[in-house]
Amino acid sequence: MSLRAxxxxxGPPLTSSQMDAAQESFGLHFPPDLVALYxxxxxxxxxxxxxxxQSHDNIARIRAALDWPVDGLLFDVANNDLWLPEWGHRPAExxxxxxxxxxxxxxxxxxxxxxxxxxxxxxxxxxxxxxxxVYQSDIIISGADLEDYFLNEFSRNxxxxxxxxxxxxAGLAADAIPFWGR
Length: 182
Hints:
By secondary structure, the protein is of the alpha+beta class. It has 5 helices and 8 strands; from the N terminus they run E-H-H-E-H-H-E-E-E-E-H-E-E. The protein is globular.
């Protein structure tokens, strides 16, 4: 991956034990391309997470980033009438609707925060998963994979996306991505 063209600030790579600790602490499985990235460098600056920092404040920041996608959906349930058909009939009271939605959303796969509200799809745990922009129920593709995302997001010169970005993500059909691919 050629991130130099993306004009980012780089920090030291994560050690295997730091990656293992982060994955264990937060119940994550980094896909192989993310492991390869973090084995070579980390991205630093506002909007990026420091997976090696185990301070109380940083752990809270990472947990908030991990919770962001589901919290945004719950906000839309309470404030914008979001309701998925598989949840059944929507209760009349918002508080009851939130209970049902929270129960369902407790089982969706976690997304891995990369930068701000951009998330790497974690399942299937394979290289080449797409990066999604997640802001409440507004979920769009930000990159067909990690490289595509970083170049699209941070390249000052701009460039064409690698893939058509419609219903496939780097050869992975949208319905192969549990929940978030819908």
